[in-house]
UniProtKB/TrEMBL annotation:
<feature type="transmembrane region" description="Helical">
    <location>
        <begin position="183"/>
        <end position="208"/>
    </location>
</feature>
<keyword id="KW-0812">Transmembrane</keyword>
<dbReference type="InterPro" id="IPR050901">
    <property type="entry name" value="BP-dep_ABC_trans_perm"/>
</dbReference>
<dbReference type="GO" id="GO:0005886">
    <property type="term" value="C:plasma membrane"/>
</dbReference>
<keyword id="KW-0813">Transport</keyword>
<dbReference type="InterPro" id="IPR035906">
    <property type="entry name" value="MetI-like_sf"/>
</dbReference>
<feature type="transmembrane region" description="Helical">
    <location>
        <begin position="72"/>
        <end position="96"/>
    </location>
</feature>
<dbReference type="Pfam" id="PF00528">
    <property type="entry name" value="BPD_transp_1"/>
</dbReference>
<protein>
    <submittedName>
        <fullName>ABC transporter permease protein</fullName>
    </submittedName>
</protein>
<keyword id="KW-1133">Transmembrane helix</keyword>
<feature type="transmembrane region" description="Helical">
    <location>
        <begin position="143"/>
        <end position="162"/>
    </location>
</feature>
<keyword id="KW-0472">Membrane</keyword>
<keyword id="KW-1003">Cell membrane</keyword>
<feature type="transmembrane region" description="Helical">
    <location>
        <begin position="12"/>
        <end position="35"/>
    </location>
</feature>
<dbReference type="GO" id="GO:0055085">
    <property type="term" value="P:transmembrane transport"/>
</dbReference>
<feature type="transmembrane region" description="Helical">
    <location>
        <begin position="242"/>
        <end position="263"/>
    </location>
</feature>
<feature type="transmembrane region" description="Helical">
    <location>
        <begin position="108"/>
        <end position="131"/>
    </location>
</feature>
């Protein structure tokens, strides 16, 4: 075996070992949480991987009753779906203009959206702005904020993908008399399915898992989402009933896990096919 082959083999083994360690770090706490959600209040404090002596499914019943998860679930679905839909619609259309128009304005917009991925939202007095608009504390202000936060990165991904679509398709449609809007929706947008799935999944997970915006921008607990209900539930039960906390956490991550499980290949395909072209 040559020295070069040995070096490649050692590198591959080290990479495998690294990924195994990372997987172990992620999976073990996840298993402790899931198993702990079925244990009683005393047994769960061991925080180990042992199977429950008795599987207490009623822990989940208690969580549903105490945490009002049904309301929190539909709050999260409403905010996540509407925010993601608006983000996809606006960012894909903006990216189409940025990618196709070779003007100083389009270049400015491209870097404007890029900068938007770096500047944190805290630099903008959002609470005062929404209060002045009369929408602070409503679903609307949370949705608008999520759209503003996610639109920059989404537009950045869409722009790279659209640059890979032959411009001849647009020109052929223009020759047939199609308008810019019609070219986008009839010709370009159907080709954006891979990157749209990527944007949808990434935005869904970011919005669903967020706790800060619901905490500061939704005035009533009846409007809170599931991650924020976990925050409240944790404060109520973490001192004595970790089994309930674990059950609440398990139910909260379940929608994201299901979405990611069935759509993970779309994330890879979309990011690969939509790699940014300078």
């Amino acid at each position: 075996m040559s020295r070069k082959t040995k070096s490649k083999l050692i590198t591959s083994l080290l990479e495998i070992l690294l990924f195994v360690c990372i997987s172990f770090i992620i999976i073990v706490p996840l298993l402790i949480m899931i198993l702990g959600s079925f244990k009683d209040a005393t047994e769960v404090t061991a925080f180990n991987l042992e199977l429950p002596k008795q599987w207490l499914f009623e822990n989940y019943v208690t969580v549903f009753e105490e945490a009002d998860l049904i309301t929190a679930f539909f709050n999260g679905i409403l905010i996540t779906v509407v925010s993601t839909a608006i983000t996809i619609g606006v960012s894909s259309l903006a990216a189409f203009i940025v990618a196709r128009r070779k003007t100083s304005l389009s270049r400015f917009l491209y870097y404007f959206f890029f900068i938007g991925t770096i500047i944190p939202m805290q630099t903008i007095p959002t609470i005062r702005l929404f209060s002045a608009l009369g929408i602070y504390g409503s679903y609307t202000n949370a949705i608008l904020l999520y759209v503003a936060i996610n639109i920059s990165f989404s537009c950045f991904l869409y722009t790279g993908f659209i640059k890979g679509i032959p411009k001849a398709l647009d020109e052929a449609a223009f020759i047939d008399g199609a308008s810019t809007i019609k070219v986008f929706f009839k010709v370009v947008f159907p080709l954006l399915k891979p990157i749209s799935m990527t944007v949808l999944i990434l935005d869904f997970m970011n919005i669903w898992n967020d706790i800060n915006i619901p905490l500061y921008f939704l005035s009533s607990p009846s409007k809170w989402t599931m991650p924020l209900s976990v925050y409240q539930f944790f404060g109520q039960f973490s001192k004595s009933n970790w089994n309930y906390v674990f059950a609440d956490l398990t139910l909260t991550i379940l929608p994201v896990f299901i979405v990611f499980l069935f759509a993970q290949k779309h994330i890879i395909n979309g990011l690969t096919e939509g790699s940014v072209k300078a």
